[in-house]
Amino acid sequence: MRATFVALQVAALAVGALVGPSTVAVAQEVIRIGCPTKTYFPTILATVAKEKGLFEKEGLRPEITVYRGGAETFEAIAAGSADLGTVAVPLVATSRKRGVLTRIVGANGDEWSGWILGVKTDSPIKSAKELDGKKVGITSAGSGTDTLALWAQSEHKVTFSRIAVGGGGLVPNLLNNNLGAAVIYSPLSYQVTSEGKVRVLIDFATAMAPNLIGGWTATEKALTERRPFIQKGLNALYGALEYMRNNPDYAIKTIATNNELPTEIARMEYEKTFLRLSRDGQTKLASVEKALELAAASGVKDMAPAAEVFQNMPIAPTKP
Which letter does DSSP use for residue 318 in this model? Predict the structure, then answer.
């Protein structure tokens, strides 16, 4: 990765020599942001930070990639293809035991707001206990949806197959009867329940005790060798959250446009998700311990201690 960056620097200087000093002045370091799915809050935050020039104010040029789920996002971070991405706590903890050293450096929040286990409205299934032997959709193994599916399985003492279909495949496969149920994140959950297409079996925001839902994650190598670079990226992302909090009309319109949602559903996503996200990105040890406790109760094994999963950074949200 370093060699590629050096090559980019050389290329930028060469172009500057041809067209003048102004081109060199705008050369910026590329930061690669990984987002688990298109219709999920990290994608909106990255988009707003880019649109409002917050990355640029930190001397960065963003490249945003949307993956099929949290596991793919994590793989990109571990492989050096993404510098920052949102990852669930158990995935960071189990991967550390396997020698993949990453840490959460920016907390998202302690509530799975808008995340549900849902079935088609006309499904005969009335409770999670009736999912025994059924297929339950998740985005990918190791993702937040997988974590919640495991918890539901353990909590209600049922055994079902967790089927990875990607973020874009959850609702279509559920409605086409390829799945008996699915773990659906916001704002998709708000949309399909409001439209009467999906019925809620479990509302994870109220069913689970507060615990860290995940956070912006980076490799320990990056934190050791390029800490200021990671810091700047976090500043821009949390600056985007502050901008959205201060400009609700813009925020709701952006959510509606990006996610192709009616304004009223976008408003629900803004109020129930974005306004509940961590503003300073600081992770509390107890919140991580609870997340790992819930994961362990769901059958997840070989996890690193909570204190090794995160590293707080002094985030200073970038202002437009």
Answer: P
